[in-house]
Amino acid sequence: MRLLMTLATLVAIAALLPALFILLGPIHPAQAQEDEIRLLSHRVESHFPDRVRFFVEAAGPDEINDIRVYLKTIGQTSRSSYRQVEFDPGATISGEAELLSGGNNYFPPGTRMAYSFEIRDAAGRVLRTEEEVFVYLDTRFQWLTVSDGLITVYYNNPIVENRAQHVLETARATLEQMGPVLGINPEHPLHIVTYHNYRDMIGALPFRSRATQEQLQTSGMAFDEERVLLVYSGGSGVTGTTAHEFTHLLVGDAVGRAYARVPAWLNEGLAEYGDFTGDDDYNNFLIPAIRSGEVRPLWHQGTFSGTPREILVAYGQGKSVVEYLVSTYGEGRMSELMQAITITLDIDKALKQVYGLDQYELDSAWRRSLGLEPLPRPQEATPAPRPTPRPPRPTPTTLPALAAAPTTAPTVPPAPTAASEPAPAPAPTTIPTLAPPPTATAEPLVDAAQAPAAVPESPDTNAGSTGAPAAGTSPGGCNPPPAQSSRHGEISLLVLLVSPLAMLATLRVLGRRRA
Known about the structure:
By secondary structure, the protein is of the alpha+beta class. The chain has helices spanning 2-24, 31-34, 161-182, 198-202, 210-215, 238-255, 264-274, 283-291, 308-329, 331-344, 347-355, 359-369, 500-513; strands spanning 38-47, 51-73, 80-84, 90-100, 112-121, 126-128, 132-135, 144-148, 151-155, 190-195, 217-223, 228-232, 464-468. The N and C termini lie far apart (101 Å).
């Protein structure tokens, strides 16, 4: 009986099927997919050094009327932004968007960026694609890489692979030495882009005036925010340059968003401490300045400025103060200082929290260690006109030797000089004519923390730039950006007027210090 009822039911359903097909129409397996927006294709093109272009093709059941590409640089801050995709609305579209990468929008080759698309149609449908990573590179060359863990070195000529390997070994040795000092173990990639020909590297640097390009050879530049380092690998000073600038990246890793709060004396002092090549040329400028009482107060060294000689003294002072802190309190305290800076965003508060000293008290303790009398506290000092130099203090009877560099420096093979390597482009050899110095104007000596930052010639560079002078030129510095700086901070490039004798002395030292 049940079997007969079942058969009757099936017969009745079969009789109704034609009517259902007429009402509903044919059912296709792909119908569900056609009810959604589909990403057909996409690609990214680097048009170095001006822009990056993003292309997308999509289709959907209704008119697509809005597409955005969301961008995020992968680094310390990972800032997000978006660009509107230009296209003609329709059910099937093809469009593009561009990200400017030159001028005030500069970011260095080697930058990693994540991108994704958001596509909307007239019916309210939304498609959000998965993030993908793109590495922005200098498209003038085909790039090769050597890697060790998170560190990747890019080079553009197979002949100089040994140079790239040397840069990689130097960076690794620097990390092994400075990682424990700064209390870090990097978790994200660090990119080093090397140029063996200096003329090639010029095209990858941020905008600089013609005068600056002619008078300053930049052998290394660190971009802490993007975790990228540019290095001129063709010079004899490549080891010191790499160690110094890579330490800037590690300082950025240690303090993150608070990098702009690290004063120059500490940032550059740590970078010189991380340079394990044992170069003490800065002492040749620091020791005479100590004897003559011309060393500036530490709290005036938030950024480095002045004549080339004063800058060299400041570098030596920063290195000496860092060595004093490490030798007196141990390396472990330095990592605590990095953490304190990220929390307090104030160097005096951070120093007080970790060492029980603010900048004035640290400056006084450091001077006493050298047999000098401390300076008056800032509020006790009578403003002195500048640039009139401070009257020299009496020379101490004994001047102890400055703290020595770490004795357990990592061993890195010397930079290779294979005969098969292409010869690097020579630095300019013309010596500029020195004009008479400008007339001095009186200016009160103020606390650097309250003084407005000088407006740089190129505001879109980043924290670290080791400037090595070309023949007959003045040196450069790599000051950290002030708190109110633009996206990439500032680099103080010294193109200042000095006496011929001082210029020659500066070149003699920096010619050895940086290639």
